[in-house]
Amino acid sequence: MEKVFRTESDSVGELSLDSAAYYGIQTLRAKENFEITGTKLNFVFVRNVVLIKKAAAIVNKAYGLLDDKKADAIIAACDEILHGKHKKDFIVDAVQGGAGTSANMNVNEVIANIAIERLGGKKGDYSIISPNDDVNMEQSTNDVIPTAGKLTVLSLAAELNAELGHLVEALKQKATEFDGILKMGRTQLQDAVPMRLGQAFHAFATSIARSVTRIENSLSEMRTINMGATAIGTAINAREAYFTHITEELSLLSGEKLQRAEDLFDGTQNVDGFAAVSGALKALAVNLSKMCNDLRLMSSGPRTGLGEIILPAKQNGSSIMPGKINPVIPEVVNQVAFLVIGHDVTVTMAAEAGQLELNAFEPVIFYQLFESFRALSGAVKTLSDNCIVGIAANRERCAEWVNRSVGIVTALNPYIGYLKAAEIAKESLKTGEPIREIVLREGLMDAETLDKVLDPLVLTEPCGGRL
Q: Quick one: pLDDT band at residue 1, thresholds 50, 70, 90?
């Protein structure tokens, strides 16, 4: 069927649009100008922009600033989008010039055209509902976009923190399961002193739980918004009723306890809150990657490496080596960590690069930050479900390494001194004679005391478990 077109005009000129499209001329110009990443706006972000439009229409209607008929049509249009309709009409690239104006106008135009049709008009007849005068009433891109970004961070963080909670629990379960298994601790990849395998997994759980707390702390800044600031913080074009009530209404719709920034100039021009969230995600990525490095080392071999744990076999590891199984789940988490750390550099540079009363680089901040959340959520989920819960301990290999190591000699320092302990360690390494036998042969300690000092509990707990 042949396409039918409509013509729209703006201050730049005229363009023809597909008559079926709900977006308008400003959106189409943005699409043509910003073919950058090939990635459209995150739809969670779109929904949050729409939520702001709905809140504005409700307030503007309640206080007589917007005609009831127009307001009801706008609210109904917002609800259609919030229920998942019209996704194909949000066409602008995630990375765009103009500090997010293109994203804001894409939403404004789609809402306007849905509302126009609800009132019996044809798309593009903005005499019925104006994207700027009605949908964008009392607002500016400069307060809508950062507020939508903050709401999106809160939404994505909830998903990530839920996955992190599952990971922490899975690690704690492994810590309990492996608590009785003695293994060799290592520092700088060299034998150190014995520990329990369960302690290694409990340390993993502790580091991830700390990352959750760090992320939650960073989110407090996401609940302070600059709605009502309009262009730069002076609240130009925002009337008192709207200015007073928009944050309250948006809190009700979003389910978040939001507050208006005390300094709207600061709230409009500075985006360090997003940098703080990105930093918390980077720290999480560092902890996840370090843990996955450890999992790969402990499972290495399995015959010619450490082989202390056995990771679940998830897929063939080689197109040429039969039977080879690789640690693909920890590997993909490592890669996500690299991605997130790189994204944090971008967010940091973009946050620093703002000038005067506005940061024009919020689009790339959101593009990278939202992807960090999405990638981390997927990585944490696959790590929990496809790796951690299925890890098994190789008890025999753990015991073998402990028995072959001279690291237990460290426990003798308080009794025979560092220098003598070092001599015994060297002799054991040279001759293969166990540490215990050398100490007894030289009469340095009696057997009863020696057995107490070298007891696994004494070796793996502060003060022999008395603390």
A: low
